[in-house]
Amino acid sequence: MAATRTQREIRQRAPFWLLALLILNFALMAIEARDDSSKQSLLRVWTQTLVSPFERVTSAVGGSSIGLVKKIINFNKTAAENDQLRKKAEDLEVALRNAQQAESENERLKSLLTLKEKTGYDSISARVIARDPSAWFNTITINQGSSSGVELNMPVVTGSGIVGRIVAVSPWTSQVMLITDEQAAAGAVVGQLGQSNALGPVRGAKNGLIEMRFVSGLEKVEVGDYVMTTGQDGVYPGRLNVGEVVDVRHGTATQAHVIFLRPSARLDQLTEVAVLLYHPPQRPTPDQALPNLDKTKK
Question: Which stretches of the chain are DSSP H helices?
């Protein structure tokens, strides 16, 4: 029975063994088979043919991934370089701005230092520390006071022209009324003192301008003319710049000009000023001015 069962199993498995032998034979033939023209193994050719589409896809995906990674790396590198360049540009801009401010400050200080040559009077340099918004910026506060020799009514100037006069003094600070205040006044002349008869007082007007009044309509006054102090008001010495004529409403023989000036000093950008140690000359008393006064009384 066992022998019969074994022969039956052999007959049943024979086709599988035959198929396996055929496949093995085919494989051996394929391995040994070669192309007549290229002498390459056909198995290799078939394998490459079957695998090539997958290699192509894998290569494309891999190439794209590598390219994407490279782009991300380059993008991050470029972004970092842009940040560095932006920071350098900002630093250069700050340095340039500081240099310009330093140069501007040096020019202002230099002009203040040459005031004695221009005016003939000593001065005290001061810095503007406050403005009075309630007075429409027509007063400022400086960091010099009576302890430094500042006194009431002393003129305050810059290298460009007059600023105003001292109206209040404490030991360490002083208040300055700007020339653009409606209560401020100064004696002035259009052109050079001694060469022009276009004389008149100036006072503050609207819009930061200065109005010059009582100038005879017969005197020649044009836009662009410069106005200077006369030294006859008891506050400012003569020959200081007041401003430039920006508007003239010409008068007649019986009507005065209406003249408006732009201040020579940049009153809206004041940072440093100088207080002139100026005391106006004493005016003569009536007895000195009128020697015959006693005679007329007799």
Answer: 2-32, 42-113, 115-119, 286-289, 293-297
Mark whether 54 and 183 lie in a shared domain.
Answer: no
| Number of domains within the chain | 2
Q: For the whole model, what pTM was predicted?
A: 0.62
267 falls within a domain: yes
Structure confidence by residue, pLDDT tens digits, 248-295: 999 998 999 999 999 999 998 899 999 999 998 877 665 555 555 554
Cβ of 291: how many Cβ atoms within 10 Å? 8
On whether residue 254 sits in a domain, the answer given is: yes
* 84 and 181 both lie in a single domain: no
Model pLDDT for residues 59-80, shown as the tens digit of each residue: 555 555 666 667 777 777 787 8
Interior angle at CA 79, CA 74 and CA 82, nearest 5: 125
Q: Is residue 8 part of a domain?
A: no
214 DSSP assignment: -
Residue 37, amino acid:
S
Do 169 and 253 fall within a single domain? yes
**Residue 72, phi then psi, degrees to nearest 5:** -65, -45
CB 146 within 8 A of CB 182: no
Q: From 278, 244, 280, 282, select the one nearest 156 (Cα to Cα).
A: 278
What average pLDDT does this structure show over 199-214?
Answer: 92
Confidence of residue 298 (pLDDT cuts 50, 70, 90): very low
Q: Range of 208's domain?
A: 122-276
Q: Is residue 4 part of a domain?
A: no
